[in-house]
Prior knowledge:
This is aralkylamine N-acetyltransferase. The protein has about 270 residues and is of the alpha+beta class. It has helices at about 45-50, 65-75, 80, 85-90, 95-100, 150-165, 165-170, 195-205, 220-230, and strands spanning about 1-5, 55-60, 110-115, 120-130, 175-185, 210-215, 230-240, 245, 245-250, 260-265.
Amino acid sequence: xxxxxxxxxxxxxxxxxxxxxxxxxxxxxxxxxxxxxxxxxxxxxxxxxxxxxxxxxxxxxxxxxxxxxxxxxxxxxxxxxxxxxxxxxxxxxxxxxxxxxxxxxxxxxxxxxxxxxxxxxxxxxxxxxxxxxxxxxxxxxxxxxxxxxxxxxxxxxxxxxxxxxxxxxxxxxxxxxxxxxxxxxxxxxxxxxxxxxxxxxxxxxxxxxxxxxxxxxxxxxxxxxxxxxxxxxxxxxxxxxxxxxxxxxxxxxxxxxxxxxxxxxxxx
Length: 268
């Protein structure tokens, strides 16, 4: 596979939104599954599909002009494949679309593009600033969410924010880069695209003096990707332990059994 890395001049914006939302559902990139047994009569169709895969890829920064094709990729894969989305049968969700594109103006997110110009993978990142004395506490995410199914996911994010404060764990850090979503086209999984997008994110953080990368993984497979890249778990919430009114809210299919936060310091 030929991969071209396109360099861009990227700097942090002069003013960043000090939101405290930790990485939502990030990261629903799945590792390639074992190929199924091909019955007689289907091999030609499968071979034809594989021949359409363009293995000459480039990695480049996402801009606001990429909003629609990025959302198209996410709707076809992330919106459907992410374990919590799948469990609640999320469907169309404008609130999630807004969340996905909120930080594109920072130019800290990256796309994998084939030679036909099709986006086949994305990593969406955003910078989170440490709250300062006197800052108003952020509103609960679930309170402002009109989508009833997505509101359940937002309530889980609120619960995590109440239980875990990354700035307490890293008191010397004044900001971190939050890897919010990692998604790859099903046909292109197993080619190392998730790792290449993550490497590009690490490079961006290093060049902009950001010392910490943060990932919240709702998927077992995305957590494995990050562990292979030397991210360390700092928080875990088994889905069986998250109860509302005494009842378990999320029970996605195994091996997705816990929500995990993983981090990587770049100054050590």
